[in-house]
Amino acid sequence: MEVGLTHLLFISTGLFFIGVFGFLTRRNMITMLMSIELMLNAVNINFVAFNKYLYGGKLEGVFFTLFLIAIAAAEAAVAIAIIINLYRNYQSIDIDEADKMKF
Amino acid sequence: MDIKSIVFFLLAGFTLISALLSVSEKKIFRAAIYLLFTMMGIAGIYFWLDYEFIAAVQIVVYVGGIVVLIIFSIFLTHHVGSEMEAPDRMRLSFSLLAAAFAFAYCFIIIRKNVFPVPTGGPAELSINEIGTQMLSTTEHGYILPFEVVSMLLLAAMVGCIVIALKPLSNSPLKGKG
């Protein structure tokens, strides 16, 4: 059985929806951030797989993956700074308890 | 089935199983460790695709950076060994249904789709070429996004320091919280 593009897309789809499932079920901000990281990684696998199997001589998918990794790192850092600041004010990082700006 | 396919399926199973454990584990520290395994599995998939440079970046940034950052923030905000409460059954079942149906829908589309004929010959990734094209100012160069990303990283770094800074008692940044 030859491994092709469909198998890689299967993995990335699976990872993405595992991330969606975690994002919907978890109530803890750090675990929600971890689910978002899973989804971003699924997107990266898609870019790399399409570049490898469909547009062999080009590098566009590789560049998108590199920039996405950089932006994901910035996003994670800002999110963790916000989470730690929230913890300092609420003594909890449960998503249901941080509702001061909700209404 | 040759050895390359077997390695691929092992990597895929490892990645997906550790991702599932990462979103379903009760202890948050273990969830972070499973996330670490997932990232390493994804790096393995990049190695399998012969994209060594991206695999190295994945290991350096995700495994060495983001997951370690997450583990640090877990230690700052949780008691070691404490368990998270399980989500209620209603939310769990509806999330499971939503994710499963969306996955099935996407997968049916992928199976039916006919991909275009590959163009451009075999994929060869030399780091030399990446560097040249990333810093080139010609038509297919990526110098502008490169500079924008560097500004974004700088802004994110300064923003993180400002947000997480503990306000001093006589500082103008002092919040009311």
What is the overall number of helices of chain A? Answer: 3
Question: How many domain units of chain A?
Answer: 1
CATH class annotation of chain A: Mainly Alpha
Give the total of beta strands of chain B.
Answer: 0
What name does the CATH topology of chain A carry? Helix Hairpins
Order of helices and strands of chain B: HHHHHH
Cα-to-Cα separation, first versus last residue of chain B: 61 Å
Number of strands of chain A: 0
Shape of chain B: extended
> Stretches of chain A where pLDDT falls below 50 for ≥5 residues?
none
CATH fold-level name of the largest domain in chain B = Four Helix Bundle (Hemerythrin (Met), subunit A)
Q: Provide the domain count of chain B.
A: 2
Q: What's the pLDDT, averaged over the residues of chain A?
A: 89
Q: How are the secondary structure elements laid out?
A:
The complex is a heterodimer of chains A (103) and B (177).
Chain A: H1 5-25, H2 29-53, H3 60-90
Helix pairs in contact in A: 1-2, 2-3
Chain B: H1 3-24, H2 28-48, H3 52-77, H4 89-112, H5 127-134, H6 143-164
Helix pairs in contact in B: 1-2, 2-3
